[in-house]
């Protein structure tokens, strides 16, 4: 829900409640005032008729709204005086109309009379409705005007906020320059602008430091590794090594290789995470895949593995280096885990790419496969970074990668 | 060849220089950008092995200077930065090849040999070792004059061995040479073994003597002694 909607909704509820209370109050009090007015009028008329009867003794019969009857006085006679409402059917229109009348019993000069004075309520009802409608209309105008005004004010007042959001959305940590938000004359937004600017500047500098650190760390680590590697290479040439020493050297070489590969892979992962690969190229994926398969075909043949490919030409935007690393890793994985003498299936259609190979079930939880340092077989010498790298690369290109195992078939699927 | 090695890390510089001399080249060394600039101004080299991160500046700065005076000199960049941008910049500057630290000396040798071959291919594109003749441009290898039917990777491996004649090559260096850095092939050593077995078989089928010796616990060595 948008901020303005939320505020307006609250406003609306509040005005509705106020309307109801005011409306009901108004209705009740106006009804009361009008009734008093009518009663007063009836009473005055009654008093006039009564006065006429008393002074002249003639019972008026020319007014349909006034009825006077001489009655036999009941005993004991008590004068009475009351108001009543009634609905009368009007002849021509068959409409019922509201009337109010006064009934009075009284004695004038030893005679008892019954007085009825009638009056139509139609005018007062009309008046009541007109009043209520006018008030309602006024309130409606007031509320809609307020809402409209509110919207207009909000639009201009929140303008800087929208601009900030927009600018932040387009903000990249890698951008060479600091973010500059458009100035605002509203204190809250001034404050927001300052906070945002200092935050992003801080984040940017942290990001750059981290990036620099990564490059430096890699440099600092790679050179000593290179020294160890070259010296080790020299040691391997020593003809006077005994078998025991040779085994030590071999263990060192294995560890060093692992360390080097680990370092390089971690640097690559960091670089992908830091979004340091920019610029996509349109790649014809089926040809790219065919080339990659060709480069490992011999390797696969050492395990008597055959490739079955079903590739439909498909163009995709990617960085060739990263794509090559991802596909190389997936192919390597298939070769590594496939049962000797089986086939590796690669299928590319317009939506996804699937690598399938036959192999023994894995020992660890497949859900963890894409996490760092998780290996299918914990005892293997693998780094457990291959699929992590694949996942990172797929994430980078906004593709989805999933693993599935069904009755002896492992498959990794990439949805583009 | 006359080679200049530019590298600021003493222990690495020494290893590389010793190794290059051992492979039969003439080798000089420089440990800073200024020293390297001075040397290329005074002397002419066939190849410069260049570290990018030098204490007094980026090693890549040497390349334009070098290209203006001695365009025939080859450049092999040695960098700790595994970043693609460095690689691309280096090659755009006119470097011939790029090797990321850490590296195997055998790999360095193979790269130097490749540049040598590319830079002066008049008659230098074939290797003759004992009964063996390897013509790299044509991807052909012969033993006693008979052609060996090698696959692409097998041929690569034979060239790698022949280039590093009489040196012990570890399984790691062979695997990395054949499949690069980023493939996580923990059991690639079995593959290395399979390749070597196939090569040996093919050589013996043609009546050649097996030149690949297994050195227990260490690796393999190509030698015709």
Q: Can you tell me about this structure?
A:
The complex is a heterodimer of chains A (416) and B (225). Chain A has helices at 3-56, 122-157, 159-169, 187-236, 243-273, 285-301, 320-337, 386-396, and strands at 66-71, 80-89, 96-108, 111-120, 281-284, 306-311, 315-318, 343-348, 352-358, 400-406, 409-415. With 416 residues, chain A is α+β, with helices and mostly antiparallel strands. Chain A folds into 3 domains: 3-153, no CATH class; 164-276; 281-415, 2-Layer Sandwich (Heat Shock Protein 90). Chain B has 225 residues and is an alpha/beta fold. Helix content of chain B is 42%, strand content 24%. Chain B has helices at 10-22, 33-42, 62-69, 84-93, 105-119, 152-163, 171-179, 188-205, and strands at residues 2-6, 26-30, 47-51, 53-54, 57-58, 74-79, 97-100, 126-129, 132-135, 140-143, 146-148, 168-170, 212-215, 219-222. In chain B, the strands form 4 sheets. In chain B, strands 2-1-3-6-7 form a 5-stranded parallel beta sheet, with helices on both faces. Chain B has a 4-stranded antiparallel beta sheet with strand order 8-9-10-11, covered by helices on one side. A 3-stranded antiparallel beta sheet of chain B has the order 12-14-13. In chain B, a hairpin with a 3-residue loop joins strand 13 (212-215) and strand 14. The model of chain B has no long low-confidence stretch (mean pLDDT 86). Chains A and B meet through helix 4, helix 5 and helix 7 of A and helix 1, helix 6, helix 7 and helix 8 of B.
SSE blueprint and pairings:
The complex is a heterodimer of chains A (416) and B (225).
Chain A: H1 3-56, E1 66-71, E2 80-89, E3 96-108, E4 111-120, H2 122-157, H3 159-169, H4 187-236, H5 243-273, E5 281-284, H6 285-301, E6 306-311, E7 315-318, H7 320-337, E8 343-348, E9 352-358, H8 386-396, E10 400-406, E11 409-415
Parallel strand pairs in A: 6-8
Antiparallel strand pairs in A: 1-4, 2-3, 3-4, 5-7, 8-9, 9-11, 10-11
Chain B: E1 2-6, H1 10-22, E2 26-30, H2 33-42, E3 47-51, E4 53-54, E5 57-58, H3 62-69, E6 74-79, H4 84-93, E7 97-100, H5 105-119, E8 126-129, E9 132-135, E10 140-143, E11 146-148, H6 152-163, E12 168-170, H7 171-179, H8 188-205, E13 212-215, E14 219-222
Parallel strand pairs in B: 1-2, 1-3, 3-6, 6-7
Antiparallel strand pairs in B: 4-5, 8-9, 9-10, 10-11, 12-14, 13-14
Helix pairs in contact in B: 2-3, 6-8, 7-8
